[in-house]
Amino acid sequence: MTQNDTSPRVRQITWLGIWVNLVLSIVKIFAGIVGSSRALIADGIESGTDIITSLVLVVGSKFWSAPPDKDHPYGHRRIETIITLGIGMVVATVGFSIIYNAVMALRSGEHSHPTMIALVVAILSVLSKELLFQWSVREGKKIKSMAVVANAWHHRSDAISSIPVVIAVGAAQWFPQWTFLDALGALAAAGFIIKAGAEIIWPALREIADTGASEETLEKIHDLASSIDGVRSIHELRTRYVGSGIHVDLHIVVDPTITVMEGHLIADKVTDKLKADGPDVMDVLVHIDPREDM
């Protein structure tokens, strides 16, 4: 695995999530049937959506980590962006689906009366998915993979969507007439899920639109490049995100009396400095501008 090839680690993280989701999905559907909880059955089916998005992530990581080729001279990192966008849309869709089902349940007035086994499984589901979320986010940030972080938020959306089940089943044990809380709790959870989906979708859309780095990041890149001996000034600094990395274009002003080789060496030092110490800088294009002393 090369320094920039994180695909094996992405697949390891994702496969763990797949197995956890598979077990949870089977257990929740079984417990929902035995415990007479339609909400838990639906929650188990929803957990199955995590398996689908995770499998997409496993397959996709092989493509976005591929080296540049004739058709993709800048690499394949935008595939990660596309997958991230897709995961975000799935998360948001789950939220809207929960809202629809909750509204239908409130309108129909039909509510189930789940048993204790449904409550226990729902609680275990929330705890296990939250632990999986925390671990996946930490590992995703460590390897700087926005797709892994996005998929982690799908784990949390599953945990959040299970909370109304916990509330509804718990209330049914002591207050059977309060089973309508299932639908109300689902509406609240759906709001958090849609928010998580939006937070995944928005950065991916900004990247597709070639939005540049923040002012803080630009300032850091400028300072790093300016620190190289021989660089008199910098202008036309441009950036864009490709996957989780940044591509940088900039012009540096050097002494017009130096040789082409000396100017080339200064440009190489700028490139090496930005790649080594810059904020997620993957590629640098430096243009040399000579200028007479003022």
Q: What sequence of helices (H) and strands (E) makes up the elements?
A: HHHHHHHEEHE
Q: Quick one: biggest sheet?
A: 3 strands, mixed
Low-confidence stretches: none
Q: How many structural units, i.e. domains?
A: 2
β-strand number: 3
> Cα distance, first to last residue?
50 Å
- CATH architecture classification name of the largest domain: Up-down Bundle
The CATH class of the largest domain turns out to be Mainly Alpha
Residues in β-strands, percent: 5-15%
Structural class: mainly alpha
Shape: elongated
Mean pLDDT value: 80
Count the helices. How many? 8
Determine the CATH superfamily of the largest domain. Cation efflux protein transmembrane domain
Could you characterize what this model shows?
By secondary structure, the protein is mostly helical. The chain folds into 2 domains: 7-208, Alpha-lytic protease prodomain-like, CATH 1.20.1510.10; 215-290, Cation efflux protein, cytoplasmic domain (Alpha-Beta Plaits). It has helices at 7-34, 38-64, 78-108, 116-142, 146-174, 181-208, 215-226, 260-277, and strands at 233-242, 245-254, 281-290. Helix 1 (7-34) runs antiparallel to helix 2 (38-64). The radius of gyration is 25 Å and the shape is elongated. The mean pLDDT is 80.
Q: Gist?
A:
This protein is mostly helical and 294 residues long. The chain has helices at 7-34, 38-64, 78-108, 116-142, 146-174, 181-208, 215-226, 260-277; strands at residues 233-242, 245-254, 281-290.
Task: Give the key terms.
single chain; 294 residues; mainly alpha; Alpha-lytic protease prodomain-like; Alpha-Beta Plaits; 2 domains; three-stranded mixed sheet; 8 helices; 3 strands; 68% helix; 10% strand
